[in-house]
Design brief:
The chain is mainly alpha-helical. Helix content is 69%, strand content 0%. Helix 2 runs antiparallel to helix 3 and helix 3 crosses helix 7. The longest helix is centred in the C-terminal third of the chain and has 25 residues.
């Protein structure tokens, strides 16, 4: 992944182009994932976060937020659900998971890519569950916590393992 290492030294317009490039790769993956039927409404594995995990050490916090914003808006525009509850749920999940995953990435000795992926999936799904309480006027969301936790373990594991396979040549990204 020498390509990703060289991005660290880009600046100015080139840096913005890098963010847009990875945002649209992530958007493409999310769009393909949106085309498949879902066993649970609004539920996706989140394969687009593979791209986020790949660049989490390369991009700053603001660049990662821009990446998530571009991804969510572009996918919502393509599938015509901009400014609808699924759009807000996805944006909320993306932003909250980026915050936590970026903070965790500063402690590489304590957390692997796999661990960051698990926590990112959990935070994303929990934040979406709490937001759905207000968007859908659910009286009690405690019944969602256990299924969300289980789904987060599954999806975070899948995304984390795929990302680790892509980074197999880096010894420090193997499960600790």
């Amino acid at each position: 992944m020498v390509f990703l290492e060289s991005i660290k030294f880009h600046s100015g317009k080139r840096r913005i182009y890098d963010v847009i490039f990875f945002a649209f790769i992530s958007s493409f993956i999310a769009a393909v994932e949106n085309m498949f039927p879902r066993p649970i409404p609004y539920f996706r594995i989140g394969f687009s976060f593979i791209v986020v995990l790949m660049v989490i050490d390369v991009f700053s916090f603001k660049e990662l937020l821009l990446l998530i914003l571009i991804k969510n808006v572009s996918v919502a525009l393509v599938f015509a659900y901009i400014l609808t509850p699924p759009f807000y749920l996805g944006l909320c999940g993306g932003i909250t998971s980026i915050i936590v995953m970026k903070l965790m990435s500063y402690f590489k000795n304590a957390f692997s890519i796999f661990g960051i992926s698990l926590i990112g999936a959990l935070i994303s799904n929990l934040s979406q569950a709490f937001l759905s309480k207000y968007l859908f006027k659910l009286p009690d969301i405690s019944f969602l916590i256990v299924p969300v936790f289980i789904l987060s373990l599954i999806t975070g594991s899948i995304v984390g393992i795929i990302t680790m396979i892509l980074f197999l040549d880096k010894k420090n990204d193997i499960i600790k």
